[in-house]
Amino acid sequence: MTGILAARPLPARSKAFDLLLAGGLTMFFGFLSLAQEHWTGVLGLGMLVPLVWRRSRPELVFFGVAAVAVLQWLGGANLMAGNVGLLVALYTISVYGEIRYSRIALGIGGLGVLMATSRYWSTSDWRQQVTMMVALGALVFGVWAFGERRRTRGLYVAQLEERAAQLERDRDREAALAVSNERTRIAREIHDVVAHGLSIMIVQADGGLYAADASPEQAKKALATIGDTGRASLTEMRKMLGLLKQDTQPDLDPNQPRPQPGVSSLPELIDNVRDAGLTVAYEVRGEPRNLPALLGLTAYRIVQEGLTNTLKHAGPGARTSVTLDYGHEMLTVVVTDDGRGAAVAPSTDPGHGLVGMRQRASISGGTVNAGPKAGGGYEVVARLPYNLPGGQQ
């Protein structure tokens, strides 16, 4: 196995450099070795030619070159110019090889220093021996230490690159999640607006159809309500579709849709439902307070969805009540009716109906409970804390 840096595929430029380096060292130091040691100088070539594969096979090259150096010593040859290949191989394994093999290579280099200097014990003064040993030892250790420093720096750069790549992947995932959440939110808004508006329009159209012959005035009133509801729904739709435009200029359009509705818009919503023929009682308990925009919109949409479900499922003659209870820590929203809606299976389409109400409440840190009442009818209870998660306002 090779080290982390060697594990990367070598570019063609690096391979060409290694080929030129090995060729140049072989041409210069190899022929010097042949001129110095004659036939044993061939071993110098054996320590230089393998450098062509020094980065792709750093351990194999080093141990191969070291084996040739041992043959040189056993053959009685002196130090030659080709021994520079051993230093290049030591540097390469300290940079690109595994750390354990790099340590072993340093030990082999130190042993090589002792073996090289022992060749001259009988022909030189002890001071010269010590000087030669220290010089060769410093050279070997310096080459190895320089390679280790290069390895450490390379690993640090590799870690930075990996961290940057991970941050980029995290950013892409967060962007994709944000897009998905925004699509879900827009789909929920469109459902609330369209379902509520169409429910009122259908009820009014049916009522106007039955009253067309017996009571033309009632039919006209139903048609007027249909028109008003359609225009209000279109206004809401323009507002939501405007969020998708990147070049929106709200100050330039006098017909720009109004801000998102909140609890202050509930009386108007309830009046529209009453015009559709549904009896609705509205009550506010506790001391009203200014709510964050998200919380107010959530309460409004929950009431809107509850009234829409009542229009669709409660049946004729059903009575409905809407209650806002401003408690100490949370706003409680209750929408209840005495119709037959409990017998109708709720929608299971994700992001719509009751599921959509629960999603809205969850975003605001609250909960929604919906189900049949004891004695008949249906009830939706939402509990929305004033302090939104994450400190949202």
From TrEMBL:
Top class in the EC scheme: transferase
A GO molecular-function annotation: protein dimerization activity
Annotated DUF7134 domain residues: 14-153
Alphabetized UniProt keyword annotations: ATP-binding, Kinase, Membrane, Nucleotide-binding, Phosphoprotein, Transferase, Transmembrane, Transmembrane helix, Two-component regulatory system
EC number of the protein: 2.7.13.3
Family matches, as PANTHER family: NITRATE/NITRITE SENSOR PROTEIN NARX-RELATED (PTHR24421), NITRATE_NITRITE SENSOR PROTEIN NARQ (PTHR24421:SF10)
Protein name, as recorded: histidine kinase
